[in-house]
Write a structure and sequence with these properties.
By secondary structure, the chain is of the alpha/beta class. The protein folds into four domains: 2-269, Queuine tRNA-ribosyltransferase-like (TIM Barrel, Alpha-Beta Barrel); 314-374, no CATH class; 377-439; 452-486, no CATH class. It contains 18 helices and 13 strands. It has helices spanning 11-19, 29-35, 61-67, 71-87, 103-117, 130-139, 147-152, 156-167, 179-184, 197-201, 220-223, 228-233, 238-242, 246-269, 380-407, 414-434, 452-457, 474-486, and strands at residues 2-5, 24-28, 54-58, 94-96, 122-123, 125-126, 142-146, 170-174, 189-192, 204-207, 212-215, 317-327, 333-343. It has a five-stranded parallel beta sheet. A four-stranded parallel beta sheet has the order 2-3-4-5. α15 runs antiparallel to α16 (414-434). The protein is elongated, with a radius of gyration of 37 Å. 21% of the residues are buried. The model is unreliable at 271-292 and 295-300 (pLDDT under 50).
């Protein structure tokens, strides 16, 4: 899989791409014409690009649709585009048609010009309708698919693989910058303008060793210090990156997309099965030595129900049996066996396709993973042990983040503060688990004449108002009053 870096119609973009060693550059004719073509001489690609750079030309159909050109203006624009393509034919690796809504106009242009231009370098563009996709795949060796179509159609990957296997058609993503789509849909090339986002919007695009990551402009101060090693490995100036130098940050994005391209190409070479032979060689951990039917899906429509002895539980969870006592419809105790779901420490990962295969010390081609993760949390002590391990790991991360902060001159790094906050949160959870509090909190309110005590204790509450031993008689009361007056 190869990435086509769009934006070659802008001289500054073209120069930075060539300087970075990019070999696949895209030119949008609409933007090129809007920038202004030379009046006194022809715009020749051979004067702009080295011989080892492949130029992919986009007709600018998306921009033409947005401009809502009249039929006459559209005809004129199509004629200008085709004349320019014919002029630079020897220097164009692949050119897309003028992609507009009118299917009659598109069919007419294909018949009048593009089939004469040569189907080996012509890229028709598919939008919707699987019969149309099959028709294009049967007629043309290359078919373009818009990135937004790939994002919306979850079944496209399987259909593309099927057509690719049946007709040998290659598919090309247009404006396709989503790395997950590039991993799932088997496109030969994917064009993208996302590499200019650092200079246009201040984003940070970087390859972290296993995947492409993008950070918004507001996160650049905390994101960029993490990748000092990557910047230095790319041969770029880290101080310029931190100073938000547009050219340097853009070069980092180009380097990262080239690394993504290299990673995807390497993944394509590491295949579990080869479709060309119908079956793969036995011996992989997933196949367990059995022959695998790896042909396209359309030849396996007549499915046969498997023998019950071949059906096993999905190996993501472990399943154990437990006896319980339940009441039947007549109130009698009945012993039943029930299944209890648990975790499975055995891994299904396979070395050939593992994303850490390049750095794993136990990598062994054509083998399953040699590591298990035997975590079991069924008791309070086991949960405390797991939290203790997480606290220790997080403490190590905080220490290393602080060490990195010191090596970078001691300037406070927001990432270190975030790791410290995470450590405190885990410690707080641990303290909550260790606390053993038992208390009852009661709030009582009563607004009737009977009072709260009467409401709580009934008739017995009246005894609380009475004096002991029946109270005082009249003589005793008179005596107490007289003693008070004498005082």
């Amino acid at each position: 899989m190869e990435i086509v870096f769009l934006g070659g119609e802008v001289p500054s973009h073209r120069n930075i791409l060539i300087e970075a060693g990019v070999k696949n550059i895209g030119v949008n004719y609409w933007r090129l014409a809007k920038r202004g073509l030379p009046v006194t001489k022809d715009y020749l690609l051979e004067e702009k690009y080295p011989d080892d750079v492949r130029v992919f030309v986009d007709g600018g159909g998306t921009q033409a649709r947005e401009a809502k050109l009249s039929a006459l203006d559209l005809e004129d624009y199509a004629a200008d585009y085709q004349d320019w393509v014919a002029l630079n034919e020897s220097n164009i690796f692949m050119a897309s048609e003028l992609d507009v809504i009118d299917p009659e106009f598109v069919d007419k242009q294909r018949e009048l010009f593009w089939e004469e231009f040569g189907v080996d370098r012509f890229l028709p563009i598919w939008h919707k309708g699987y019969p149309e996709l099959m028709k294009l795949a049967q007629k043309y060796p290359h078919v373009g698919i818009l990135g937004r179509t790939i994002d919306q159609d979850v079944t496209l990957a399987a259909r593309v693989r099927s057509l690719q296997s049946a007709h040998g058609t290659t598919f090309h993503g247009i404006a396709c910058a989503n790395p997950s789509n590039l991993r799932n849909v088997p496109v030969q090339t994917a064009s993208s303008l996302a590499w200019v986002s650092p200079m246009m919007r201040g984003e940070t695009v970087v390859w972290d060793g296993t995947k492409l990551v993008r950070y918004q402009a507001k996160m650049k101060d905390e994101a960029r210090p993490r990748y000092k090693g990557v910047v230095e490995q790319a041969g770029l100036d880290f101080d310029k990156i931190m100073a938000d130098d547009a050219n340097e940050v853009t070069k980092l994005a180009i380097y990262s997309y080239l690394k993504l391209e290299e990673h995807l190409t390497r993944r394509e070479q590491l295949k579990l099965a080869d479709n060309s032979g119908g079956i793969d060689d036995p011996g992989y951990s997933e196949t367990e030595g059995r022959e695998v039917d790896n042909r396209p899906t359309q030849v396996r429509n007549n499915l046969t129900v498997r023998d019950s002895n071949e059906v096993v539980n999905l190996p993501v969870f472990s399943v154990s049996s437990k006896k319980i006592i339940e009441k039947d419809d007549f109130g009698n105790d009945v012993i039943k066996d029930v299944n209890v779901i648990g975790s499975n420490s055995n891994s299904l990962r396979q070395c050939n396709t593992c994303f850490v295969s390049g750095n794993c010390p136990a990598f062994k081609p054509d083998n399953s993973c040699s590591f298990n993760i035997p975590i079991e949390v069924k008791t309070k002590d086991q949960l405390k042990g797991l939290l203790n391990a997480v606290i220790e790991m997080q403490g190590q991360r905080v220490a290393f983040a602080r060490f990195t902060e010191e090596l970078n001159g001691g300037y406070p790094d927001p990432n270190t503060s975030k790791e410290i906050d995470r450590l405190f949160k885990v410690v707080a959870k641990m303290k909550e688990l260790e606390e053993n509090k038992e208390f009852v909190r009661m709030t009582v309110e009563r607004q009737t004449s009977g009072g709260v005590m009467s409401a709580l204790f009934g008739d017995k509450a009246n005894t609380l108002r009475e004096l002991p031993n029946g109270g005082l008689d009249e003589d005793q009361t008179t005596k107490i009053i007289q003693e008070g007056l004498d005082l």
